[in-house]
């Protein structure tokens, strides 16, 4: 008899209303995998894009999966079972992970559920000083900031450019983070500060107090002034927002500096960047348990903190997705299992 669980599933693409909380088969693990009893999972932009069927992509790039799908990549929970070849994890361990990303980018990694299977190589012990809610908010955003700013951590081909992304040394440098109030942004502020940078945070004014508390040296309220008109001679801009006119930051960057694009689609300034001797670079975040353990030490000692925008029961995933579509999210939105 198949063991069952509760999960949030998609039977079709669409708005938040297509997220259905229902019974689903509990996943079975391979020999190199761990079954995690999920305590919390967080929302990330790919969750929203997949729910909507990646409609903004060209038709040939849009997914054609077999429904139903279970969204979600970030989890924090407790080990419920371990595969025969797994070492380093035992039943009862508190763990967290970014699950099968980008491998399951177009099909969902299964985190919006009571249980999820995770490759042992993607798993790390949860920092003991933080709870499951805050740990669930960390993996994708923390690994994105880490792989952009500290260490790429893999040699997989870069889907966005011919060369591997190489983080620049940041000690003594000035770093502007655009979208500093969001999931990636507020962690990037803290990691850049930890590396010895002078950090300029760009966000709406409602995030100012938080960002100052997290270590930002300067906060620019983009609702009052265009950041690119006041920020000058910075060494690096990390744009965690994307969208139109990302090249507007190029005049703010020193020759020899860098512009890192978390979402590079639509960037049109490569020629201008070359003339200004600015390196434009991007990469795609990848699951990495060893890096999550390494970055997790900063969560353990309080050097980096995860800001939580809001929490919802797993059964209210559709409400959480509506919240995620609003502006000025502060940190992460988290779903909690029953």
In short:
This protein is α/β, with parallel strands linked by helices and 338 residues long.
Structure write-up:
The longest helix is centred in the middle third of the chain and has 12 residues, at 183-194. The two termini are 23 Å apart. This protein is globular. It contains 9 helices and 16 strands. With 338 residues, it is α/β, with parallel strands linked by helices. The protein has helices at residues 45-51, 132-136, 139-149, 183-194, 208-213, 227-230, 270-275, 289-300, 317-324, and strands spanning 4-10, 20-25, 33-42, 69-70, 74-82, 94-98, 115-119, 123-125, 174-178, 198-203, 218-221, 234-239, 253-261, 279-281, 308-313, 332-336. The protein has 2 domains: 4-138 and 306-336, Medium-chain alcohol dehydrogenases, catalytic domain (Quinone Oxidoreductase, Chain A, domain 1, Alpha-Beta Complex), CATH 3.90.180; 145-281, 3-Layer(aba) Sandwich (Rossmann fold), CATH 3.40.50. Strands 3, 5, 6, 7, 8, 15 and 16 form a 7-stranded mixed sheet that branches. β15 (308-313), α9 (317-324) and β16 form a beta-alpha-beta unit.
Strand percentage = 25-35%
Shape: globular
Helicity range: 10-25%
* Class by alpha and beta content: alpha/beta
On the 0-100 scale, what is the average pLDDT?
96
Question: Which SSEs are present, and which pair or pack?
Answer:
Layout: E1 4-10, E2 20-25, E3 33-42, H1 45-51, E4 69-70, E5 74-82, E6 94-98, E7 115-119, E8 123-125, H2 132-136, H3 139-149, E9 174-178, H4 183-194, E10 198-203, H5 208-213, E11 218-221, H6 227-230, E12 234-239, E13 253-261, H7 270-275, E14 279-281, H8 289-300, E15 308-313, H9 317-324, E16 332-336
Parallel strand pairs: 9-10, 9-12, 10-11, 12-13, 13-14, 15-16
Antiparallel strand pairs: 1-2, 1-4, 3-5, 3-7, 3-16, 5-6, 6-8
Helix pairs in contact: 3-4
């Amino acid at each position: 008899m198949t063991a069952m669980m509760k999960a949030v599933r998609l039977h079709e693409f669409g708005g938040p209303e297509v997220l259905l909380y229902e019974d689903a088969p509990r996943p079975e693990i391979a020999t190199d995998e761990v079954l995690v009893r999920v305590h919390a999972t967080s929302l990330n932009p790919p969750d929203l894009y997949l729910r909507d069927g990646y409609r903004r992509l060209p038709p040939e790039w849009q997914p054609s999966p077999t429904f139903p799908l279970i969204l979600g990549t970030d989890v924090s929970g407790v080990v419920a079972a371990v595969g025969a070849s797994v070492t380093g994890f035992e039943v009862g361990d508190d763990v967290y992970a970014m699950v099968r990303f980008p491998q399951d980018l177009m099909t969902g990694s299964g985190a919006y559920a009571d249980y999820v299977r995770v490759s042992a190589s993607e798993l790390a012990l949860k920092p003991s000083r933080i709870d499951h809610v805050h740990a669930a908010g960390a993996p994708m955003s923390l690994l994105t900031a880490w792989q952009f700013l500290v260490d790429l951590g893999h040699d997989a081909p870069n889907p966005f450019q011919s060369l591997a992304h190489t983080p620049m040394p940041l000690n003594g440098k000035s770093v502007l983070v655009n979208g500093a109030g969001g999931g990636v942004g507020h962690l990037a502020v803290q990691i850049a500060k930890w590396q010895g940078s002078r950090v300029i945070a760009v966000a709406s004014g409602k995030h100012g107090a938080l960002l100052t508390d997290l270590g930002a040296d300067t906060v620019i309220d983009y609702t009052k002034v265009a950041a690119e008109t006041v920020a000058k001679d910075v060494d690096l801009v990390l744009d965690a927002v994307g969208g139109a006119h990302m090249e507007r930051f190029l005049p703010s960057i020193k020759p020899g500096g860098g512009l890192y694009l978390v979402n590079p689609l639509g960037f049109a300034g490569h020629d201008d960047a070359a003339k200004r001797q600015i390196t434009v670079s991007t990469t795609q975040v990848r699951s990495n348990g060893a890096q999550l353990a390494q970055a997790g030490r900063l969560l353990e000692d309080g050097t980096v903190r995860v800001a939580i925008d809001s929490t919802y029961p797993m059964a209210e995933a559709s409400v959480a997705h509506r919240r995620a579509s609003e502006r000025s999210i502060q940190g992460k939105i988290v779903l909690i299992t029953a």
